[in-house]
Amino acid sequence: MLTHALIGDEGRTIELGWQDGTRTRFHAMWLRDNALDDKTRSAGNGQRLITILDIPADTRIGAAQIRPGALELSFVPEGRTVSFPAQWLSAHAYDRVELRKGGWTSDAIERWTKTTMQNSVPRAGYAAAGHDRQTLREWLSAVRRFGFAVMDGVPTESGALCKVSDLFGYIRETNYGRWFEVRAEVNPSNLAYTNLGLQAHTDNPYRDPVPTLQILSCIENTVEGGESSVVDGFAVAEALQTESPEGFRLLSSYPARFEYAGSSGVRLQAKRPMIELGPDGELLCIRFNNRSLAPTVDVPFAEMGKYYAAYRRFAELIEDPRFEVTFKLEAGQAFIVDNTRVMHARKAFSGTGKRWLQGCYADKDGLLSTLAAIEHGFREAAE
What we know:
Blueprint: E1 2-8, E2 13-18, E3 23-27, H1 28-33, E4 60-67, E5 70-76, E6 80-85, H2 86-91, H3 114-117, E7 123-125, H4 126-131, H5 133-146, E8 148-152, H6 161-166, E9 180-182, E10 198-201, E11 213-221, E12 228-232, H7 233-243, H8 245-253, E13 256-260, E14 268-272, E15 275-277, E16 283-286, H9 301-319, E17 324-327, E18 334-338, E19 342-346, E20 355-362, H10 364-382
Parallel strand pairs: 7-8
Antiparallel strand pairs: 1-2, 2-3, 4-5, 5-6, 8-18, 9-20, 10-19, 11-18, 11-20, 12-17, 12-19, 13-14, 15-16
């Protein structure tokens, strides 16, 4: 509930008071640019119908009136009156005084370790997720919160993993194809196609943009060993930052280089930090793949020794068993990982028996869009 609206700075700003005693300030230009009326935004899709140049540079608030559940503002010199829901203003307030330390994550993200996750791996049944929106909502929400989830009851047929992707989005095709096989090969083009163990890693850091989701589906698994494991890179980054702020600074300030040239006609290269932060310090992405790391040439000579020490310590923490959650995929099971956050690994397995997995890539924006649409539908139904 709004308690007062005080226009200031000759109409260039306004201060709003709320029932809980807090106060938030807004700029007239910001409010006008974000107006919700049908002349400013399309009623069909919410996109803007005007540009910043359509708004007078000397836009000010001429009058303000508190209405039930809303704030009504009149802008000059346009002479336009617009109503803003109080709830919308509260949700979009930017007048904050707290300074967040670099490496922060949103409330939608929950970091985890072996202790908190080993016995509570999020999972759902494929059939239930395909027919029940609440089940799908919970599974997608788990991927958003924890960065990974398991799905049971996936058809044990080639290409079935695409049906998992179809639940929320689309396959991202690469030079590996629409999907790729993960089983031992003679003269493999990638170490994933052997029976060797693989260090925890994120996939394809040599791509720009990197695939944001990976799905691995098990069709057959009768080998000894070959367990899958996942590591929360955000939790590891937090541990590094707590232990060595300087190491965290180095890995988040300087770019690493990654490359892949294992297939004929393919030569992929990218340059990004191992720990990527947004301009406001938000932890956005982890890139870690020893197999694809190219020579680092973007770190000054004076910092290279410390950079490599930080890289080594980051790798040690990633290998620390306290961060590792392990499970063995059986036929008909799949797991999905947020490839910008969660690293996955594989234990070595015997040469007898068969282990046949298939993998594919998808994009997180599709998953988050589907989840948001489901959540919006649930809210509308509740109202």
